[in-house]
Predict the structure.
Amino acid sequence: MRMVSAATELASRASRSKEASAGGYLTIRNVGKTYDADGTCVEALKNCSIDVKAGAFVAIVGPSGCGKSTLLNMIAGFDTVSSGEIYMDGRLVAAPDLPPQPGPDRVVVFQNGALFPWKTVLENVSYGPVRQKVLTRKQAKKRAIDLLRQCGGLDAVAGSYPAQLSSGMQRRVEVVRALINEPKVLLLDEPFRAMDTVSKTTMHQHLLEMYRICRKTIVFITHDLEEAIYLADTVIVMTTRPGTIKHIISVTLQRPRLPKMLFSHDYLELKRQAAESVHAEARKAFDRGEREQA
Amino acid sequence: MSRINWRGAASVAGFVLLWELLVRFGGGRFEGIPTLAEVLRAFGDKYLTNAQYWQSWIVSFERVGYGFVASQLLGIPLGLLLGTRKIFHEVVYPVVELLRPIPPLAWVPLSILFWPTTELSIIFITFIGPFFIIVINVHDGVRNIRKEHLWLARSLGARPRYIFRRIILPSLIPSIAVGMTLGIAVTWNVVIAAEMIASDVGLGRLTWEGYVSHTATTVIVGMISIGLAGYLSTLAVAYAEKKLMPWRK
């Protein structure tokens, strides 16, 4: 019950904020990345073009080392692009001659978790608005408590340090820390990678619920195809290094997504279609790994 | 702290018992070593009410305190500079690596020549002991700062100066704590050695005098005093660590 009323409250807040900061569409044009660390050029990413509509949930799937995290870091402004451009709502945010510019409109949740361990949950969540000076410390704390409460009663752990929480709870707090900044895009870098199946399923429902009430654009990186299909509207399959876009799958499953859909005909059919191309790439990556080892 | 560590107490008692047994039944090699009862008697007769003995505690603690604090105050910034400034690292690090293996005691003669008073020479030695330990730990800690934390701080709107104070420094506290824990023990090692060579008071001096005058009980009183003093300092450092890192449970 509490969840529902909280959801409507947040939804109305979201619609208000949408007027203030409409948009959240992302345009990635011919982006490439070449690393040139010790004289040997490594092409991590090649000629990637992706359009993400405002409010869409896009999952990028690919084998390890295919450059998907690199792509995410470039969107976030943590890494430079070697070629191509990235636009956020039509505004150029990344190009070869542009210094990387991270901002609160594109916040990342990392796979290993990056809550500041020396800050409490409340301090972590209220951090962004205070630093950007959009809220006073007091306002930010109040807002943080509200948001934590709405996201499944996390306000109960507001005074705890991250190390005292389970990894699932840490990741949820991290999503809240991102959401409080009203980002246009939420960038998730394999956030549930290290979790067991049961926690993962729970986390999926939490994330879907958060997505339902805030409707932020989400770019979700994973190597788990089933997770990608279950969560996203669009699944982008990447090739192994140099990463290129191999396949774009529209997920026709309706929302809300429920665990029973994992056994539905539509889901299994989508999975069957995608599995071939993903496994082919995984196989290539694996074989190359073998060669490099030998 | 509220609960008594009975296993630890039993282990100390076991050690004392072993000592007693070895002296009584251990044979020739243990003949010259006094028993605990003898040491305690000597302590009660000669030191318990002896102002100079307690003065030794104070003096040694002061030397350790000054040297240790100075080493942290200079070592932490040096480690930070080495870790964060590339050119500074290239210029200074080789010198650090050359000086680091030199035992603190090797500095004693130069220290006596250079510093105007014995006291300053000893404090300089106690400074050298933990100095390189903290430098290396902080330097290493800088490399272990998670780039995700720096990235996130920037993307959430933090300015560079703020990032230094509120992200880099807290990230280094665990490394500083390790440096302090290792450093405080070394500081006691070197203060005692420095006192043996160049001082007229201090717990190390007391031990040395016991040796020179062939008074084994005095040597052992000195050793136990140093052990206790070191243990108390370690407790103080552990307490400081707890205060510095409330998030580590």
About this structure: Helices of chain A lie at 2-20, 68-76, 121-131, 137-150, 167-179, 197-214, 225-231, 265-293.
